[in-house]
Amino acid sequence: MKRILMTAGALCFASVIFAYNPPISGESLDRLVSPTQLTYASSSAGGGIFTAGPDAIVFNPALIASEQRITLDASYTAIFSSNGGANIFGSAFQTGILIPWKYFAVSGLVKGVFLPLDKIDVGNTLGTNIAIAKEVSDRLSLGIGIAGGVYWGHGSDWSVTGNIGGMYRIPRVGFMKDFRIGVSVLNLGKNYTSTNLVGIDGKNTSDIFPMLGTTHVGAAALLFANDYIKGGASFELITPGFQNLIVAAGFHFAVNDALYLRIAEEINIREAVALADYGNYSNFMPAISLGYRLTFKTKNNEYMKRNGWGESDITVNAGWQQLYETVHAVSGNVKFNLGLADTDPPEIELWTGDEK
Asked: How far is CA 284 from the centre of its chain?
């Protein structure tokens, strides 16, 4: 009986997955806007080495809760096909700002993905995300956000959705440090439904995208760290409306908190099955990005010094991934943090009376 029930359950799950018909890359549009997103630096648990810029809210709005500094961020991605054709070039971008307040942190961004390629003709989307997050305790952070956008290219449509998320931190689990569990539920509302975009089966009109109730569940932690180097890993399960399964894993490595290497792999089960017979689509190349952070001081700007921004840092990232056999993404990003993060705990001195 157990075997029968298990077999029946597996068949039901498979039938749901194979009936689901999103457009090619329709579930990965937010990944394309920056090299850090491409390599899951902002997974739902914050990536192997915790990273939370303004764009982190698209995967989990709770990630920004512990941020201490105003952050400005801008990215651009060129997407092109090496197979020729009438339409071989597309692009994506995002720009955002993160502002920490006394009681919560807020982040907002504008993003766009333009993919009229012959190989992945998803059309064009332009949208925005806004989120607020708060540290409920030293370990628990919660966040909520709203997103909206417009679509054109194969008909036209609009979307307005809500996102919720949480992250729980544990200082140490075995040999792992800063162990984090992140959970988020995205796209709760009206998504793109009124398009004539062809789905992944190559025959029928696509289903809703991005999928209503897309759930992210992830874990991340530092695997090793000392004064010079540190490395961490992340693992993520994504279920768009429980009709598909996307598995992602990443490894992040840093030297002197200045030079960063990130590698990530994502496997979309529905795409892998549907595109296996297409020849020039199937691909499992990992994404890779390099970043460098430098600190600078402002000498003659009194306004910057008065606001505690006399010493700030800027990080430049570049990334690449072969998305499909003939489609590549090359991405660049600049992130500007005003001021320096406070990493030193307060010092408590006992007064004995000898100080007189």
From this structure: 19
